[in-house]
Amino acid sequence: METYLTPAEVAKMMGVTRETIYSMICRGQLDAYKFGRSRRITARQIQECLERRYERAIDATRPNA
């Protein structure tokens, strides 16, 4: 059984604010389960978010591309 973390717990782990986590969820960067009015995030969802973050190669010769 997976452990479900609150956005506040994820924020503390990642060193960001709780609002940043909610913003990432809203933008579709981080998946989350919805239980009533609460959001819960698994370790697998965090890992997938981080993997997607580094999937796209960055072209340093074209800033802001």
Question: Could you describe the 3D structure shown?
Answer:
The protein is mainly alpha-helical. It has one domain. The chain has three helices and two strands. The chain has a two-stranded antiparallel sheet. A hairpin with a 2-residue loop joins strand 1 and strand 2 (38-40). Helix 1 crosses helix 2 (18-26).
The number of helical segments is: 3
Order of helices and strands: HHEEH
In the residues, how many domains can be counted? 1
- Adjacency order of strands in the biggest sheet: 1-2
Spans where pLDDT lies below 50 across 5 or more residues:
none
Keywords:
single chain; 65 residues; mainly alpha; two-stranded antiparallel ribbon; 2 strands; 43% helix; 9% strand
Task: Summarize it.
With 65 residues, this protein is mostly helical.
SSE blueprint and pairings:
Elements: H1 7-14, H2 18-26, E1 33-35, E2 38-40, H3 43-53
Antiparallel strand pairs: 1-2
